Amino acid sequence: MSQDSGKIIETLNPNKVWIPVLFGLGIVAYLFYSDPDVSVENLALIMNARPGMFSLALLMILARAVLYIYRIKVIAKEHLDWTSSVYVIILWEFASAVTPSVVGGTAVAVFILLKEGVSLGKSLALVMLTAIMDNLIFVVFAPMVFFFAEGQIIPESPQPLEFMGWSFSPQTGIQVLFWISYVLIALYTLSMAYALFLKPRAFKWILLKLTTIKFLRRWRHSAYEHGNEIIWASSQLKGKRLTFWLTISGVTILIWAVRYLQLNLIIASFIDLPIADHLLIFARQIILWIIMLVSPTPGSSGAAEFFFPLFFEDYLGQYTLIANISWRALSFYPYLLLGAIFLPRWLRKVYKVKQSKAS
């Protein structure tokens, strides 16, 4: 995992916040002008939102941050204090927002942890463990959602989509994209779990054997380094008690429940939702997030806004556009803003500590 400081700092450049913002606003503008049923009046519908529900949706921003900070503190223990944990989470989320979802902010997260004084092995273990735990939410729950929802996950649309001369229903397109994304995420997550928890040395051996193939030889050195990283990370997790695994598993489930609950509260601030519909909206979000995870755009910007109406317009109707904007404004943009604010302070903090140690 490359730790080139110059490249990492460039990734964390606050000026990059405009890239995902422009992607997202571009798709919103496209949806606005391509749908004859949408007008400026739809934006004014925000005034119809129920203050109580919308306030709870705002509160989920804080709840999500607190849970993330608590989880990383549990995993890192004495290696991070609470202040450092806050910085790590805000900058990690910022990095994830300004890099493609398919790449994520893992290399940046390791760099941040290293600058906070966490050892390389511990940093790798922490980042890999949280990534695996988050991805397991999708790997485990997505098939359950499809089984129990009985075909209600992806609503039918009367308007077919056109692509390179092919015409197909949005439901078909979403299902194909979902299963491609799910298989890729499942393969990655299960292989990383095997390497980290079960057979790190066997995983390194497999990587080295694969890179003996002629067209893969150029990556042999990277395979060797990645294999060593897996072994270091795995050694950090040996001997953990059952309470540790139960705690981080429970907190991870709560993190994603809070993420999903935020959208439920936004939708419920515009329309009445019975319990059964709340559960179905939860289920649809699991599928939507899996599709978003393989987006090539920073923080899934554009992709999230594009797919939102396909999943939730049957509930929201005229409120679809304003709910779409509200969802991204509350779930995505806060970390762009916080990252841009906290990054300069963090850089001064870690490099001041480094200079004081050197002197």
Task: Describe the structure concisely for a colleague.
The chain is mostly helical and 359 residues long. The protein has helices at residues 5-11, 18-34, 40-44, 51-76, 82-98, 106-115, 120-149, 170-198, 200-210, 220-236, 242-268, 275-293, 303-316, 320-331, 333-358; strands at 161-163, 166-168.
What percent of residues adopt helix (DSSP H or I)? Answer: over 70%
Order of helices and strands: HHHHHHHEEHHHHHHHH
User: Biggest sheet: strands, sense, closure?
Assistant: 2 strands, antiparallel
Taking the alpha carbons of the first and last residues, their distance comes to: 30 Å
Estimated radius of gyration: 21 Å
Number of strands: 2
Beta-strand proportion: under 5%
Determine the structural class based on helices, strands and strand pairing.
mainly alpha
